[in-house]
């Protein structure tokens, strides 16, 4: 399947069948321009200024629903006949005490009728409102439904085999016409009148007041002009709202709307509000509506290339219970939960190139750019390689525990990525029993640790192999291990712990770590002339003292790495760098060379 570059699909990508190793199910692109977008958000138009309110009124008396055939009136039966083959029918439904002021703008109005028999569920009629200021009941002595004055506006309603249960019918135009009448007053009664059209096949009966399921009139209307507050009806609660491409701020109540780019959703009324000093119909406003931009579920051998997955209520791409799935050079961004989520017993899942950014800003969601683990069985052979990963709401990558005891993630490889920014750290490994290799990544400028392990559940410690990473200018530690079996070589740590607080040095390990083996690393902090960059079992040390106490890092150094231009995010080594060719060869990891590798990712 090929998607045209520059186009956008506001729907969900969901492969329904598997491919094979020789012929995978492939989603790719053609043409020129920007990557095609699969968006989990819909554009909203039709905003109205003011607070949207609702009125829900049911028929409340026996004489307030009736029908006639022009010769006879029925106003006390359990049902109301809408239409009958070969004969005209007129039906009427009276709704008392409509608390809407004269001239109020009606956003929407529906009448909800209950079909009780599948043999009589095919209505064929025109629906009006009675053109009266305060409509009377259908008791004997009052005009029958077929003898009432009618509104100019009407709604044709022709349906076949609706089935049993309620069905709402739109009646906005007729209701608005009555509310606009000069003599209308709040608290008056309003009648809806149906004129059944004669036909051969249509018959429809609905329950009335005496039948225990009276008709209900639902009206949504603008209750007045609140300063710069606009409203629109919306069936599905959005987790995110975007205004001209920028994620807007959700507030907790209607009264919290005090500034542009703020929004609130009234879940009971299903109304979305925004604060805007200009007409929002002139803006591009997108509301997240689908749980995924793409869901790869219970399939195998699927390949996704060069596509952007954006602005879903939940995950950008959710891979669950699937195998042999590859995502190449794609962008996963602005999703409510993780950009990429892999869980529920998936294996051989790979993401190469592209980016995952600005995901996870829905509080109840997974707040990472890449989330591995979580629900269901453990997963295996998960590769994240060469991806630009940045600005997550929380950690940029989390390898998390599953919700089934004993289920773990194995064969996780995170390599060659640029990982930066965000609300917390770079890479977090949480939960027991995982097998994770973290190598040749640049991890910089995060709001917490560059790399951290944090196992709180009981179980076998996770096995972490940390090789050849460059970790620069993170707010707390470059690497901080509370748990796990850790093997760490050839890593470069520079100017981390910008916060200058806590046990967050360039490199640290607690006494809760099951095993810690570390050597051929470089750690340096220009702002700390005392050299307290090495943290071990509760205290900070100079390198020489740390070596003697821990027995680790015999070949590690605390010297300025002499990077080319770290302020410009160029972490390459100058020829004179003490990290140049100062590492150790790691079998199966170090690229083939007769020379010792550099310390760091470059």
Features:
mainly beta; 2 helices
Could you explain the architecture of this structure?
By secondary structure, this protein is mostly beta strands. The protein is 3% helix and 41% strand. The protein contains 2 helices and 56 strands. Strands 1-3-27-30-33-36-39-42-45-48-51 form an 11-stranded parallel beta sheet, with no helix packed on it. A hairpin with a 2-residue loop joins strand 20 (241-243) and strand 21. The longest helix is centred in the first third of the chain and has 8 residues, at 172-179. It is elongated. The two termini are 38 Å apart. The mean pLDDT is 93.
Average pLDDT confidence is 93
Can you tell me the residue ranges where pLDDT is under 50 for at least 5 consecutive residues? none
3D shape: elongated
Question: Helix proportion of residues, in percent?
Answer: under 10%
Instruction: Tell me the strand order in the biggest sheet.
Output: 1-3-27-30-33-36-39-42-45-48-51
End-to-end Cα distance, whole Å, is 38 Å
The value of Rg in angstroms is 33 Å
Q: Biggest β-sheet: count, sense, barrel?
A: 11 strands, parallel
User: How much strand content do the residues show?
Assistant: 35-45%
Give the class from helix and strand content and strand pairing: mainly beta
How many strands in all? Answer: 56
Number of helices: 2
């Amino acid at each position: 399947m090929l998607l045209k570059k520059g186009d956008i699909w506001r729907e969900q990508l969901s492969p329904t069948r598997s491919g094979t190793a020789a012929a995978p199910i492939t989603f790719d692109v053609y043409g020129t321009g920007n990557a095609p977008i699969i968006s989990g958000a819909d554009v909203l138009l039709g905003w109205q200024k003011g607070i949207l309110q609702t009125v829900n009124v049911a028929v409340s008396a026996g004489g307030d629903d009736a029908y006639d055939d022009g010769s006879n009136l029925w106003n006390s039966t359990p049902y109301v006949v809408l239409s009958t083959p070969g004969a005209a029918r007129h039906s009427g439904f009276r709704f008392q005490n409509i608390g809407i002021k004269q001239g109020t703008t009606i956003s929407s109005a529906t009448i909800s009728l209950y079909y009780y028999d599948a043999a009589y569920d095919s209505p064929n009629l025109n629906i009006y409102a009675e053109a009266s200021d305060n409509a009377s009941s259908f008791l004997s002595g009052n005009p029958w439904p077929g003898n009432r004055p009618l509104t100019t506006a009407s709604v044709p309603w022709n349906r076949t085999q609706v089935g049993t249960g309620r069905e709402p019918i739109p009646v906005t135009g007729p209701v608005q016409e009555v509310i606009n009448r000069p003599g209308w007053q709040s608290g008056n009664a309003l009648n809806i009148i149906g004129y059944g059209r004669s036909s051969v096949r249509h018959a429809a009966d609905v329950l009335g007041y005496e039948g225990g399921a009276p008709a209900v009139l639902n009206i949504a209307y603008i209750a007045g002009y609140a300063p710069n507050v606009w409203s629109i009806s919306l069936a599905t609660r959005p987790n995110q709202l975007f205004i001209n491409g920028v994620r807007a701020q959700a507030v907790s109540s209607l009264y919290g709307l005090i500034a542009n780019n703020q929004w609130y959703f009234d879940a009971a009324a299903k109304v979305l509000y925004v604060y805007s000093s200009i007409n929002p119909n002139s803006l591009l406003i997108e509301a997240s509506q689908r749980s995924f931009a793409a869901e790869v579920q219970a399939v195998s051998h699927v390949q996704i290339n060069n596509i952007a997955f954006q602005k879903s209520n939940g995950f950008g791409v959710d891979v669950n219970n699937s195998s042999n799935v590859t995502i190449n050079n794609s962008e996963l961004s602005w999703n409510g939960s993780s950009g990429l989520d892999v869980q529920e017993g998936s294996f051989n899942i790979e993401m190469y190139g592209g980016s995952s950014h600005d995901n996870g800003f829905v509080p109840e969601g997974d707040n990472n750019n890449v989330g591995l683990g979580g629900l269901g069985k453990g997963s295996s052979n998960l590769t994240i390689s060469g991806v630009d990963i940045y600005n997550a709401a929380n950690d940029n990558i989390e390898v998390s525990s599953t919700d089934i005891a004993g289920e773990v993630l194995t064969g996780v490889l995170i390599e060659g990525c640029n990982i930066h920014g965000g609300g917390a750290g770079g890479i977090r490994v949480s939960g027991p029993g995982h097998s994770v290799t973290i190598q040749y990544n640049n991890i910089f400028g995060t709001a917490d640790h560059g790399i951290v392990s944090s196992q709180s559940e009981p179980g076998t410690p996770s096995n972490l192999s940390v090789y050849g990473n460059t970790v620069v200018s993170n707010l707390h530690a470059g690497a901080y291990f509370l748990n796990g079996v850790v093997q760490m070589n050839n890593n470069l740590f520079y100017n981390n712990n910008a916060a200058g607080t806590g046990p967050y040095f360039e490199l640290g390990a607690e006494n809760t770590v099951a095993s810690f083996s570390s050597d051929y690393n470089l750690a340096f902090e220009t702002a700390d002339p005392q050299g307290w960059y090495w943290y071990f079992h509760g205290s900070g040390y100079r390198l020489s003292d740390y070596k003697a106490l821990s027995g680790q890092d015999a070949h590690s150094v605390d010297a300025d790495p002499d990077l080319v231009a770290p302020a410009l995010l160029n972490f390459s080594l100058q020829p004179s760098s003490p990290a140049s060719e100062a590492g150790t060869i790691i079998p199966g990891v170090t690229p083939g060379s007769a020379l010792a590798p550099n310390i760091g990712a470059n």
